[in-house]
Structures are given as C-alpha cells and as structure tokens.
Amino acid sequence: MTDTDADAGWFSRSDAGDAADAARDRLANGEADRPRDWPALAVESGFADSTDDYYDRLHEASVAATREAVRERERADDAQLIHAVRAINDMARKLV
Q1: Which residues fall within 8 angstroms of residue 2, CB to CB, at 6 or more apart?
Q2: pLDDT in tens, 25-38
C-alpha cells in the first residue's frame, strides 16, 4: 500500500475483481510507511459516512478476512490428513 492519498487505504475502491476480495487482500497484505488518519481519509473519500461507520466497516472486513483465512487453513489441514491416511494405506498394502 502506498502512503500518498485515500487510494492507498484498504478501503479504496478497485475496478478489478470483487471489492470485498480486494479489501480482504489489502487488509492481509497491505502496509504503509507511516500511520495515517485512515478514518478521516475514508470519510473524505466517501467510503464511510463517519468515523464510527469506518470502524464498523473495518470490523466487518477484518472478521471476513479472518474467517476466510481460517477456512483456507482448515482446508489445508484436511488435505494433509487425507494425504497422511493415503500414505499409511499404501504402506499397509505393501506390508501385507
């Protein structure tokens, strides 16, 4: 994330792809050189009606990003378990 204007915020609108996915990605991977007054920038850009609205939206986006990260992690663990069981089955067949 750049540090020049409201477009640098996690809340900036993007023409490409799903806005929720873009916000989630920016929350997870974005960075700034220094702290900014993100709530004020969000209000100035029209993203939020007020500072309270900004924090409500930030909370919603953060929870959604966390849920998605947990789902991805759970799927990865399930896949590892499936591979482990298959490996054990393969070894058992070779021993018999």
Answers
A1: 8, 32
A2: 888 787 778 888 99
> What does the alpha-carbon distance between residue 83 and residue 27 come to, in Å, rounded to a whole number?
32
- Here the tokens at position 20 are 């929720």
Q: Per residue in 43-93, pLDDT tens?
A: 998 989 999 999 999 999 889 888 888 888 877 777 888 888 889 888 888
Distance of alpha carbon 29 from alpha carbon 68, whole angstroms: 14
Cα 66 to Cα 4: distance, rounded to the nearest angstrom:
27
Enumerate residues 6+ apart whose C-beta is below 8 A from 68: 24
Composition of the chain by helix, strand, coil, percent to 5:
70, 0, 30
Collapsed DSSP state (helix, strand, coil) of residue 12:
coil
Alpha-helix runs per DSSP H in the chain: 19-29, 38-45, 51-95
AA identity, residue 49? D
Please tell me the pTM assigned to this model: 0.65
